[in-house]
Design a protein that fits this description.
It is built from eight helices and seven strands. By secondary structure, it is of the alpha+beta class. A hairpin with a 2-residue loop joins strand 1 and strand 2. The protein binds iron/sulfur cluster (SF4) (2 copies). It is a peripheral membrane protein.
Length: 234
């Protein structure tokens, strides 16, 4: 059986070791009498120092703390000023996602059902918030700025399936001056006119089209009211 090492440290010197009888200098400084006397209560220093600082408890959910302007929260699928959707169903966001959290199915726009400028639109759009890590790579990949992130951080669902947000959960709300899709593009324009900001709102032709095919569409009324207001201020 090997000899038991009975060395011990005493005053910065090793003594009693069987194999190393030479003394050595310890790097640990000797504590003075005052430091030794205060040692038992030194651990309370942090506690006492914090007792006199202002309280930082947040009263969430009664008071929601504002986020930083560029905080990565829930996604949003944006629209053009006339109400057409910006998403063209290209799937670039889904390919860019490192967590495989996005599922997109594109479909063709038709003269009877034009959802976005150009040939294609996003028919199915899902984001699985159980997978999303809010990295923002998807919004960087989007060629039309259809996909952006809001500051909304309250994301909850009743079940695992409830955490998969569908297109209707992600689409930006329609403002008073927007006409719900589908409807034709502004006459005489191409998709590039939309990208460059040439379209500023619905035209009478688009309003007439929706009135003909969806006379009960609630956005017709709000668009007409917004039109009347802007006429009055001219
Ligand atoms: S934020 Fe990141 S993880 Fe979430 S959907 Fe976009 S790319 Fe995927
Ligand atoms: S959100 Fe953007 S990147 Fe994703 S499918 Fe739509 S257009 Fe393409």
């Amino acid at each position: 059986m090997a000899d038991k090492d009975i060395s011990r440290h005493e005053g910065g010197r090793e003594v009693g070791g069987a194999g190393s009888p030479e003394p050595y200098e310890s790097l640990i400084e000797e504590r003075g009498p005052v430091a030794r006397a205060l040692a038992p209560v030194a651990g309370f220093g942090v506690t006492i120092a914090n007792m006199f600082k202002p309280t930082v408890t947040e009263q969430y959910p009664f008071e929601k703390a504002p986020t930083k302007p560029r905080y990565h929260g829930r996604h949003q699928l944006n629209r053009y000023p006339d109400g057409l959707e910006k998403c063209i169903g290209c799937e670039l966001c889904a390919w860019a996602c490192p967590a495989d959290a996005i599922y997109v199915e594109g479909a063709d726009n038709t003269p009877d059902a034009q959802f976005s400028p150009g040939e294609r639109y996003g028919r199915v759009y899902q984001i699985n918030y159980l997978r999303c890590i809010f990295c923002g790579l998807c919004i960087e990949a989007c060629p039309t700025r259809a996909l952006t992130m809001t500051n909304e951080y309250e994301l909850a669902g009743p079940s695992r399936a409830g955490m998969i947000y569908e297109k209707q959960d992600l689409l930006a709300p329609l403002s008073d001056s927007m006409l719900a899709a589908p409807h034709p593009m502004v006459p005489g324009t191409e998709d590039t006119d939309y990208y460059t900001g040439a379209v500023t709102g619905p035209t009478p032709e688009q309003i007439d089209w929706v009135a003909q095919y969806r006379p009960d569409d609630p956005t017709l009324e709000s668009v007409r009211r917004a039109d009347a207001r802007s006429e009055a201020t001219r």
